[in-house]
Amino acid sequence: MAEDENIKEQSEAEVLEEAPEEQPAEAEAPAEETPDNSPEAEIERLKKELADEKEKYLRLDAEYYNYRTRTAKEKADAYDNATVSAVTEILSVVDNFERALAAKTEDENFKKGVDMIFRQYLAILEKLGVSEIPAEGAEFDPNFHNAVSSIEDENLGENTVAAVLQKGYMVGKKIIRPAMVTVANP
After folding, report:
1. CA-based Rg of the chain, rounded to a whole angstrom?
2. N or C: which end of the chain has fewer CB within 10 A?
3. Does residue 61 contact residue 155 with C-beta atoms inside 8 Å?
4. Structural domain spans, the chain
5. Topology adopted by domain 132-186
6. What sign for the dihedral angle of Cα 37, 43, 46, 48?
């Protein structure tokens, strides 16, 4: 008999498991529209959600634009810095060629050869965008000129560059080396 009761309890448990859950009567009836789930409220909620997503998109687009411009500027700066570094090393050679050309020599072929090499160096500098800072006869500008001495000369105006001791160079608007000059009538 205990066995029959066991089977009966098991059968009731199985029947309960297999039977679908009963829904309350309220759930089966169509939901009445409340102010919170009306079509107008749903439209407003969707509009707000769309506006939020649009704002996220615009922010992301702006961040990407800033990233592109920043990396492009960094690349250009890296190129300019590399050019400045390389040109700085070449300038000492150019200075030595200028001194060699200024020296007196009796061998014209030698002087002509040195002049040709010097002109090749100047052509390389020109290709790299390097230009000489105008100095002699110009008004002294501390941004472009480094005054190492001064003289009094009635023939020159006030704060005029009288002599260039070492040429100055720049790439674009970036100064590689200021011109070393003597200033008249400071």
Report:
1. 43
2. N
3. no
4. 61-128, 132-186
5. Nucleotide Exchange Factor Grpe; Chain A, domain 2 (2.30.22)
6. negative
